[in-house]
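WARN no homologs supplied; continuing
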Amino acid sequence: SLIREKGMPHGVIANLGDHFGYHGALAPHLSAPEAVMIIHDAFLGNYCGGWAQLFPDPDQALRAMVCTTYGPEALPPEAPYWTELAEMVRRRPMIELFAGHAIGAVVHAKHYLDRVARACPGPVAEIPLSSRDLIIVPPPLASETLVIATIGHVNANKQITEVIKAIGSSAALRACCRYVVIGPIEPDERQRIEAVMSAHNVTAVEFTGWIDDDALRDRLAGVDAICCLRSPILEGRSGSVIVAMLSGRAVLVS
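OK structure emitted
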């Protein structure tokens, strides 16, 4: 209806999230004057980092994105683009770079609605994230082993190392807990996590890598509890939290 109101023959609906590998094909269309953007995350700095790699000088491209959006003082020549995540989220989350060019926008949560609304010249609506039910079997019967899972693309924000440290803090937990990390993981991130495992004497951690929906259902059938921790919270809504709640399992959230 918004496109019709503006007398446009057609429009672009852009699903935009903070992972360039998932959303990078949108890049050529993000400056379309008729775009309605569904902005899934409150922080798009990683998307910008991936997008910049397509330019001859990625560092210069990133600096141009920041300075165009927030002014030259937001990233002085001597300052790095990548810095402490919470500070980047507070000072330059990069969502304005995209929202400022949209005729309207959708967000999934109130915690970044106002920021998008200040940048977007058109209406902004909060609409919950839709998700289909994977129809996961009920949790397993209680046993001597407690199986914990984290679902999704593995990154530092998901607090996987904190779960490992918690398990490692207790001999009883080390004896009874098995931790399954379900989702794609880069080699350097796995190496970082394995270093924490070694430091805290935790060995019962399994990395599945990417799996399809059928394999996800099979994996979750043997899981007792699902960790959906985030720090800071960057998403509008978490798909893994929705899956966890629909599965009827204990869910740990921030």
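Residues 138 and 248 are 6 Å apart (CA to CA).
OK
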